Amino acid sequence: MTFPKNFLWGGATAANQCEGAWNIDGKGDSIPDHVMGGNLNKQREFTKVIDLDKYYPSHEAIDFYHHYQGDIALFAEMGFKVFRLSIAWSRIFPKGDESTPNEAGLDFYDRVFDECAKYGIEPLVTISHFELPYHLGEKYNGFADRRVIDFYLNFAETLFKRYKNKVKYWLTFNEINFGTLPMGNRHLLGIIDGVDDVNRRYQALHHMLVASAKAVELGHEINPEFKIGCMLAYITMYPLSCKPEDVLACQQMNQVLNFFCGDVQVKGAYPFYMKKYFADHGITLDTPQEDLEILKKGTVDFYTFSYYMSTCIAGNPEGEDQTGGNLFGGVKNPHLETSEWGWQVDAIGLRYTLNQLYDRYEIPLMVVENGLGAIDKIEDDGSIHDDYRIDYIRKHVIEMDNAIQDGVDLIGYTSWGCIDLISGGTGEMAKRYGFIHVDKDDAGNGSLKRSKKDSFTWYKKVIETNGAVR
Q1: pLDDT at position 343, please?
Q2: Is this prediction's pTM over 0.85?
Q3: For labelling alongside 212, which of 158, 310, 444, 445 has CA 20 to 30 A away?
Q4: Where are its TM segments located (predicted)?
Q5: Which domain holds residue 52?
Q6: Which is the catalytic residue, given 369, 379, 399, 428?
Q7: Is 175 marked active-site?
């Protein structure tokens, strides 16, 4: 057992997937509040006008807004050292472009952080987790408009000053590299007009990278003790074979999807390979020298990422079996098993990824999303025997330990959806990740009662022994 004594064990959530209370206490509507429920076979529908006769999963979610005290008490019972959560932008600035914040929203997070402090739990706060105020999408098309940089900075500054003595660890954006794919427009970039213009998409991503760098610099000015990191969706990729074409295709995909945003946020400059990528795709960005200087100054203190699966890349993928995944699918790896949602389970890939990232960046790393989405069966006595979830996380804990032995500076782990929440991709409740069951179904029905799964007790022992229990 090699986990450091101060290792940050915990769990992760996102405001739009757990808070609910979408229109009370001054909160404005966010872009996710306009997305109806769906399922694995039906894409979620985005509506400009909210039809209250229809089901929008984020409107109630699991109602963490009214259950936060009990939920945090359960996290404390598991022994959490850290709780990753996000702040709903539209709860603080209902439209996103106001100058004066909503005090009721600020007060809610004061109470949440105070509750965490009561149990000695360190908050890890994602400033923006796929939940831009709808108004910013409707009026500005989100980060496609440069003015949204300043709106984000006003939001970040408000949080930094209000919670400077309550929060130490911050993440500027969730899975910022989501913006490298067309499917990422609506939730991350705020582009909601339905038009995928690749140039505008990358311009919006550039504005987000600048906003992140400015926030890092600003946060360090407000409180030099702040630790401010980036967060990426890391999709570990292997060449399908040792054919040079497969190896090259994998390298090129890796550069654009996995390395690009991290290189900018950690190293402070656009990497060389993006120049050719932009030229090949007809992308011309407005990147004034002032922006490039900001990127140099606003590099992050630590690097965090989500890890669920791996995939294979082929130079010619036609005719190859395909697999799904978080953010990005690919060619099926014949050596791996898949989850109920078609994601390839690859615990050893986490060790490989940690070594790859630490070799590239040499700053502290944290795994801030990892877990198994599965359909849980409730027994007649109310128990939930989720051995499959325990097995999944156990294997990943072992590989994190191995990576630490390799010399990787890994400082924390927050399992995704530590309490059941609505799926960001499908809006379902059936795809459950939590150690804590929430009584709610895919149609929004249920008592919201919380109950412990077998994995709750197991993860508690993992934390108690600092990773010695497997």
Answers
A1: 74
A2: yes
A3: 310
A4: none
A5: 8-238+257-312+321-464
A6: 369
A7: yes
